[in-house]
Model the fold of this input.
Amino acid sequence: MNFTSFSHYWNDVFIRNVPVTPVGHNETRLTFNPATYEDSGTYYCTVDNGVPDRSGNISQTATSYVYIGATPKITKETELDIPVGAEIGKPAILQKTVFSKPDNISFNWNRSDSNSTFNYTNIKPENITLEIYGKTVNDSGYRISLNISSFSQEDIGTYTLNVCNGVGCSQFSVNLTAAGPPRPPKEFQQEGESSHTVRLSWLPNYPGGKFKQRFILEYKLQSESEWMTEWTSDWSEYLPQNQKMFYNITNLMANQVYDVRLSAENDRPKDNVSVFVNITAMTAKEAKKLSGPGSGIGGAVGGAVGSVVVVGVIVVLAVFFVRRSRLSSKNNAVPQTGDSDLTYEGLQERGDSAQYSQLTVYQNLHSSDDAPQTGASDGTYEGLQERRDSAQYSKLTVYQNLNSSDPNYSNLRSLSTM
Done:
């Protein structure tokens, strides 16, 4: 009897020829030691004794199906240890495709840094691809998924799928990481301003994964439509998310409202820019130019000490005094403290008091006895000299009906401005 080697097939795909071991004259044997799930399949063996049958064939072929149970196996679809990248805030799906003989399985997912398991999983039958002794074959298996509805930084880590059947259990790991555009900057705000500068601050956010990050700042007048790129930062490997960043936009116009926006960018090949965050910023008004220092006249009017003082205004103001020889006293005399000291009482404020912005004080007034007289109570003075320590006043209140206890002066009055 002549025996050929066994031909191994997985479904309809030829896998290999397996040498046989003769046992006696009319028997051969195929032994798997050790046996694996890859040895499963259909085997064909041909034998002949040199005598043709009625159809003229001198050989006969026999088949045998071999089933070898094993723990679940990963399939070609997900066997590579490739990290799964997910975008922050969007769904993330971890999945593995497995082959199992026997078919009945149980499974669960857990994360390497946690003992808890996840319930949001799914399993469904699926056509899978296996590598059997170097040959690619198709078969039926399962796709087992872990669904994360909204991926966050806290979800980053290594996840393990445990799958068990009647023979034993197998574990398959997958690394979940972030791989998307960076998150928008946080707490973007105006910190301060001057007439031509606004100071901005913000907090960096997650860069979208293990990527470098930088920022892009744009602005425009609120009344305009075209954005201008003001600044693009340098790339940074790591930016603490709790450490403020600052930038000053300069050369702006005073007392204007600006729209300002900021985005983050990472060095991912595509989809690497965050959405913009927008604020409204305003510059300050121009600083006002201050006029010279001045002070208002305050307090009660007392006696004039020393020489007679005449108050003058920028717009021509003349104060006329009646001559001493023509004044009559309306009150009893009060003791004098000096030759030119006067004490007044019963002062009344005129309702039509004029307001003045600048006063000039004069001193050392000397009356000229031979000056022409313009009226019964008019006096003419000459030799007026401006005091160098003249005070500046912002408000002047004019008083009338001054009653003097000295018979020298009474009924002082102010002329209107020219």
